[in-house]
Description:
Blueprint: H1 3-16, E1 20-26, E2 29-34, E3 41-43, E4 54-55, E5 58-59, E6 62-66, E7 71-75, E8 85-86, E9 91-96, E10 101-105, E11 110-115, E12 122-123, E13 128-134
Antiparallel strand pairs: 1-2, 3-6, 4-5, 6-13, 7-9, 7-12, 8-11, 9-10, 11-13
Amino acid sequence: MEAEQIRKIYEAMNENGFNSIELELAEDHKIRMQLEHAPVRVAVAEDQPGVADLENGTLKTQVEIRSDKVGSFAFAERQLKVGDRIKKGETLGSIKGISFQDRVKCSLDGTIASVEVEPGTIVDYGRLLFVVDLE
């Protein structure tokens, strides 16, 4: 694999909100790429309600939290709803697969703007879980 191909895969991962990808080229040839930090997708568009609202002269910015695994989603200690405040590092939920259980954490302080998943939902790579208004 050439450096240009790796760069294109990296750009596609960032554009789509993935922080890991696994490619199987043959039975015994697999490639796994994992970004050190999950991509943060920031949407700023006037045609999306709530995204570009001005509050007290400041622009409201939203971040999407997406799944980086395939499995069953469960909330952490509390089931989050719109308006709940969350803190950096707080565990929002978990994704449980056949041989793993990974926590879904928030990387920034904010307020839940949208909850896009229910407990027990089977999620796939890149599935939108939450939209968070940053503080």
